[in-house]
Amino acid sequence: MKQFFALSVLAMSMSTSANYLTNYQDPNTDQLIQALNNNRIHIVQLGDSHTAGDSMTEALRSQLQSRYGNGGMGWAMPMYFSGQRMARYGYDNYQWTPISSRRNQNEDYTLGGLIAKPNFSGSTLTIKAKNQEPMQSMTVSIRQSATDGLFKISDADGNHLILEAPIKNDTWQTTTFDAKLPFTLTAEGSMTNTAIGGWWGRSKHELGAIVSSLGINGAELSHWSRWNQNAWQQELATIAPELIILAYGTNEAYNNLSAERIATVLDERIEQIRQASPHSAIMIVSSPEVLKNTAGSCGVRPPTLHAIQEVQRQTAQNKHTLFWDWQSAMGGSCSMKQWMKSGKATKDGVHFTHLGYQQLGRQMADDIISLSALNSSSHLTPPPQMISPSPISIAPSLSTTRTFYQK
Predict the structure, then answer these.
(1) If I label 330, which of 109, 186, 264, 306 is the partner at 20 to 30 A Cα–Cα?
(2) Which UniProt keywords apply (predicted)?
C-alpha cells in the first residue's frame, strides 16, 4: 500500500488533472485535443452493464453533441438483445437469432462480442432510429461463406441497396453504405454461415461528436479473449476513434478476481488496442463503488474492490493513459448508500438509476471537454523509453470503405 501511495504521488506530479479526469501522459493527448477543437470526435466505450444500458453514455453523447454537433448515431448492436438497451437505435426482426459471447463461447465474434444470424432466406431485420436522425453513413461488420446469399436493403427514403460481404471467405469484413433510418434487410439465398457483428452510424456531414456504447451485461475485460482478436483489431483499426474508454471492474470485484490478474489483462488489452489503433487515446474508467450488502451506514463492499480500483489507476499511470475516477465522482468511499437514498442508485447497491447515470455521464463529458481548454504545452510528453507498438497490418481492400479481417 505504501508503495502504491508513493507511485500515486509521483504520478500526480507528472500528470495533468481536470476534475475527476487525470491524464497520465497519454501519447495521443494532443490528437484528442485537436479533435475536440475541430468539432470532430468519436468516442468508443466498452464495458459491462453500466455501459450496456446506454444511459451514462447517452448523457455523455448528448452533452458532447450539444457542444460539438451531432456527428452520428455511433455503434449499434447487430439486433436486439434482451436486457440490453440502445438509446438511439430500435429494432424489429423476423427469424433472426441473437448470440452473445457472455453465454456462448464457441462462436466467431468481432468487436463487441455480439452477433446476429438470419435463420433462413426471407428473414428480415429492421434498424430504426428512436428520434429523427439525418442520413447516416453505415459501416456494417459482416461475415459470410462462399455459398451464402445476400441482403436486399430498403431505407426510409425508398433507396434500394444490396448488402453482402466483399469477399465471402468466412472472415469478418466491413462495408459501408448510406441509408436513411429505418432501413430493412431481407435475406435472399442461403444464410448458413452469415452473421452481422454490428453497425456504425456516422452523419454524412462528418462533423460533430459520436459516442459509441459497446457493453455486455456481466462482462469482464478478460472476456475479450472470447472474440476473434484479428477481427476486432481490424474493425477497431477501421473505425479509429479518437478516444477508447475501458469501463470494467464491477464484475471482476464481484467475482473476487485478484488485482494482479486485473493488471495483467489491462496491460494486454491496452497493448492490443494501441497496436490496432495507434492514434487513439485510451481512458481507463475505474469501477464505481458497489456493494455486496446494503446493510449498515456504508454497506459492505466486495473485498477486492479497493485493490481493483487501485490497480486500475496504477495501470493508467504505468501505461500512460487517461484515468477517470468513478468513485470520486460519486463522492468517494461510502457514497453508494447516499446515492441510493437520493434516488440516483438502485436498491441492489450496484447499478444506478437513469438520474444517476445522467449525472455521471454529464460529469464525464465536462471533464473531457475541459481537456480542450488545455494546449499542447500543458501536457508532458511520454518518457523517451516509451515505445508505441507497431500498427497491425491491414489487408488490402476493394475500396476505401472495406477492410478484410483474417482469422
Answers:
(1) 264
(2) Hydrolase
The predicted model scores a pTM of 0.89
**Do the domain assignments include residue 385?**
no
pLDDT, one tens digit per residue, over 24-53 is 999 999 999 999 999 999 999 999 999 999
Instruction: Show the domain range for 231.
Output: 1-71+207-378+392-407
43 backbone dihedrals φ, ψ, rounded to 5°: -110, 130
| Rounded distance between C-alpha atoms, residue 250 and residue 288, angstroms | 7
Given a cut of 50, whether residue 389 has pLDDT beyond it is no
**Total number of domains in the chain:** 2
Cα 83 to Cα 30, 50, 88, 198, 272, distances in angstroms = 38, 12, 16, 17, 29
Half-sphere exposure of 11 (CA within 13 A, CB side): 22
